[in-house]
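user: Kindly work through both lines:
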Amino acid sequence: MSTSPAKFAYAPLPPKARGIRLLTLLPGTVDDPICCQLENISLEGDQEVPTYEALSYVWGESQDTVPISLGLSSFEVRTNLYDALEHLRSRKKLRKLWIDAICINQDEVSERNHQVQQMAYIYQAATRVLVWLGPNSFESVNAIHSLTKINSPSLSDAREQIIQMKGWEWENLLSLLTRPYWKRVWIIQEVVLAVDLEIICGEDKIPWRYLEKFLRIIKSDDHWSEPSFSDGSFPYFSLVQDVAKTMPARLQDQRELRSTGRSSLSSLLQDFANSLCTVAHDKVYALLGLAGDCAPDEIDVDYSKSLLEIHQDIISFYAKKNDPIWSRYNDETIVNGKNLNIIAFGRLVSWLLNCHHGGDELKFESMRNKMSPLEHPLVYEALPSDVVYTITAFEPPKDASMNERLEWLEEGIGPRILQIVSSPTRVKTRVRFRDHGQSAFFPEPLKYEYQVGKPIWTSRGLAGLAPLNAEIGDFLYPIPETEFTLVVHPHGIGGKLVGTARLLKTQSFAHRTNEHSLGLKHYLLSTDESVMFYFDSETFQLLTTE
């Protein structure tokens, strides 16, 4: 009576020492079952590490699994990986591979943390990274044929081959370069760090250098910005541009960038914000190995952390470095040649991690969990641009979303909404500012208002929704690159942060013609000195995770 093979049990890796597992794919024919062996490899000292190839692929759906043999045991792998193993297996030779789904014990969080921290090394040390795009298709076969055809030693010959490509060839190529594989966040590091790359699609394969040469030609100004192409006489110019903007083209840019410098973590998070992953933590962890401003041990990989804790890890990382990311003049500074401001960056990270409290105070408090305060305050410099001028009596629908409330407000701008509760004729309180860099608004003294819903008019004629405890005369500080505006209540030589407002971008004609609408403008423009905000971690996360 036959029995099923036992479920595979991992031999543990040393918890703190550097080590990995390598998979040996045994030879076989198409009809043979997939059989493999797994061994632990130490990376400590002068021990020689066996040569291996690393697989880069998409995991696929978790419910679609197929068993393989791992030693004397059975091991479930997802369908896409099974297909890859079938195509990678040799008829006669052993093949040594590193594959994350098998070589890492995915059920052991501490091991996952440790192995993910080593991923950059693993892909850099591989003799070759194998890019598995999945089974082939009619389109992929033709696309790979096109790339092979243009791989001429002569650049002019290769260019001529590209010019002769038909529309259907460009469409097939675009289909290959936009496969689901290219949408995943982990493949960015795996491709960029590879010493050598091979693209595999079913039975077809080509070296990455074929694609690299092709992309270099179509992205070169010398070849593709000529009037004969861009004026429409070249019928497939738009398809060329689409191909030049694909993820593989962006990854090749990153590969070339590493020879002259490396991107910062902040710019990587922005550039690859739309890449996909199953676990939100990977939006950050998958890019750490590429970040030129982040050493391997500066941000810990820990999948047991809450998303809000990861948000704070990134913010703390820049605060500790005293990086100029934390804004200087006009709320902006230069980081790797890009403008970035503290609150916009914090909101980007919260969007990436999908950690939002949505104005719910209880939800935010539960999100904070075991958060510890930042060692360094976050400094944000701004200029006031507007003032709360009037508060209206109308209330937006209570159960509506923020966008629906703003739509309601925009549609309601006119005589019926201008039932003014109060309107000042002059401002009685003048806020004095100390010398540049000395004055500050400290947000903690006034209770932060989570809910936004009070309709207001500003001195500049904008309508919007403010926190429920906003008052006439409160200063408004728009946050560049976001839809939010800080609301600050004047207090002594500084002020207290009330919360955030949402302002419509267009002025109301009715309000512009109101004779009181200019009442605060002179006062506002006279306070032209910048103000420094010093945020503790809780208030900063309140602002950036709304």
